[in-house]
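Final report, section 2: Outcomes. Of the targets proposed, PKD domain-containing protein is the one most frequently requested by collaborating groups, and we therefore present its record in full.
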Amino acid sequence: MLAAAVVAALGAPAALAQTCPAAATCTPGPAGAATGAVTAFNMGILNVTLGSINNTTQGQADGYQDYSCRAPGTTTATTLALGQNYTLAVRTSLNNNETVLAWIDYNNDGAFDPVTEVIMAATPATGTGTAGGLHTATFAAPATARTGVPLRLRIAADYTNSPVPTPCSTPQFSQDEDYAVTLAASTGPPVVAFTTNGITTCSGCVQFTDASQGLPTSWVWSFGDGTASTAQNPSHCYAAAGTYQVQLTVANGNGNAISAATTITYTSTAPAAAACAPATAAYCCLYGVVRVRLGALDNASADGSAGYQDFSCTRRASLAVGTAYPLQVTTGGTLPHDTRAYLDLNNDGAFATSELVGQALGAANPTFSLTLPATTPLGQPLRLRLVTDYAGSDPQPCKAPTNGQVEDYAVVPMARPLATVAAAALPGLAVGPNPTPDGHLRLRLDDPAAAGPYAAEVQNLLGATLLSTALRLAPGTDATLDLGALAPGLYLLRLRDAKGQVAVRRVVRE
Ligand SMILES: [Ca+2]
Ligand SMILES: [Ca+2]
Ligand SMILES: [Ca+2]
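The predicted structure is given below as tokens.
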């Protein structure tokens, strides 16, 4: 121990300086040894880039390749700074999908720790066509990693249907390659950044995660409500609904940096919590909900592979009561689905049979018509639940889908906008006195063609119906309405004739 410490303190003589990474404790074999000839599948690692590494090679037929021990300045070694983000890009064959993983032997012991030394977790290819076969991952070397010596970078690739590669496994169809990475201490001030688990919260609590580069050693979070934290990754709960500006200040031995403000919105109006959250039992075959459109809401999401998803806090549609809206559900893949939509109209967290608002059995991509009853209380968000599963599955609001998915959204009932009603209808109708001091209104019709029975409703500006009656309009005979029970204010008088045509007048009760 003492001798080793002395050697480390003195440094190794320059002539003996390590120019290659520590020998690997394991070496993957070439693909095909167990399964016979696999060259026809054309898999393999064809190009690797990281820092100054840019190495284009042949694929699987090369077998395991150790490119790590080359002269400095070659395209198979690079120097990176601790704590800074770098992106490793690995291109594999276009012919077959491959899974790629990568590790750096940060402590230079020749072995790859599957947790602390992984820099690319199992990553499928992105891109199509000539951009296909590309695997990327961004990572930052930890403060504890060895600096100043070449460290072994191992990249493992194999067919997606083969077992996920480990640092020591021999691939069935693809290839492993090793490179060299030398780490250097971080020399500049930190670059500040952070993420959250959502900038809109309905619980009031937000998880903040530091994403700064340059290995900061101190953190000061200002949550915008007069409180602060010096934790690296704090969780914070706001006491009152509102919007808050959050800033993070980080520092290391070389300086500090202050983030721009991120706005957090705490909305305390949320649908009642759902009584059940059905998980997908056995996702399969691209079943699920991948897009929902309703009013101004348009939400793309993962299919049933993501299981139950609750979007009811952040994904809301404001809908006017008494108005029909198309609810478009895009189902995953091309197979037919059974889909049902429920709206928790009484906001009790449960979905009664009477709250089924649409269903489509044995169909892909259904569109439902959703109309909120005119009596729906305004402003309170209601939970909209979509359940979808394979055709013949008879999905239910609290039944776990076999292959499909349950997703929740929120619908916010709003007053019917004036623009949607025919204010110019019934030009021959006079309503007075308006304003009315005692609530009595006379309705006088000059147009004989418009004579007949009418349904009359008086609504407040929130769309709630306060008075509903039937009356007959005819020239020479005034109809009367009594608004005497209403509070002073502005109201809408809606008159609907036998054909369903609607006329609206604004009336003021003094
Ligand atoms: Ca290769
Ligand atoms: Ca190691
Ligand atoms: Ca209910």
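Confidence is low (pLDDT under 50) at residues 1-18.
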